[in-house]
Amino acid sequence: xxxxxxxxxxxxxxxxxxxxxxxxxxxxxxxxxxxxxxxxxxxxxxxxxxxxxxxxxxxxxxxxxxxxxxxxxxxxxxxxxxxxxxxxxxxxxxxxxxxxxxxxxxxxxxxxxxxxxxxxxxxxxxxxxxxxxxxxxxxxxxxxxxxxxxxxxxxxxxxxxxxxxxxxxxxxxxxxxxxxxxxxxxxxxxxxxxxxxxxxxxxxxxxxxxxxxxxxxxxxxxxxxxxxxxxxxxxxxxxxxxxxxxxxxxxxxxxxxxxxxxxxxxxxxxxxxxxxxxxxxxxxxxxxxxxxxxxxxxxxxxxxxxxxxxxxxxxxxxxx
Length: 320
Ligand code: AVJ
Hints:
The chain is of the alpha/beta class. About 35% of the residues lie in helices and about 25% in strands. Strands 2, 3, 4, 5, 6, 7, 13 and 14 form an eight-stranded mixed beta sheet that branches. Strands 1-12-9-8 form a four-stranded mixed beta sheet. Helix 2 (about 45-50) packs antiparallel against helix 8 (about 215-230). The longest helix has 20 residues, at about 60-80. About 40% of the residues are buried.
């Protein structure tokens, strides 16, 4: 993956497989079959997501990178002197470098990620590239934040790029922003990356690219279930579908059954009628107004809002 953090589980392998199995059984039992997007990101899914970020149709990563580069001096000023930068779901810390390159006054960088492998590798690389920066990694799930170590006297800034907030339900997004606020403390700052509402054809193209990489990314979920859980999904009988849900202001990815069929997982049989879908991901698109509404429910206020060129994404600077 690029730097975009995913709400992915990296538990010990057996726990993770057991959780995948339980989630899939539960998800296939619902009237609208659905599964958490975190299961899209096994090694193969993470590799495919990285390919997605380089597709001509997938604008979010490119646009956010350009905007961060543009805004880096303002961000440095926003963070202040001797600042502590806390990144939630830091992954490979790739986008962070754009900020670090132009923030000489930053004292401490605290990457938080659920994958200790990714965290260790990123910590080594950042320490090597920025020898004067104190790097203090924290292993943890950003949806279930551990207490953060007391570090430095400077102001704290949270960093959550990649529009990952859009993959969370409103309830979870408020929960995350509230707990991040608690952990960072009163008076802290936050940099939030979001994707914006735009014409449906652009959105659909970004999630249903001509080369079929997003389709492969989505279908890999079924291949993963076959590999890890010994399920018997027939990959030729499911199709990728990306739809713009205007009512809920979100892109949705589904896997559509192209025939009546039965899928077996352990001893349980799950029926799909022709045209029935498994909902695998929602990616919410915002406006300045819907972001203000969301962050205020979590105790933050918007102090700056910057949009990229078209197709536009935005960075919201928060304080609270
Ligand atoms: C990186 C999780 C925000 O929702 O746009 C890309 C994931 N899914 N193409 C997004 C994704 C399909 C991406 N996030």
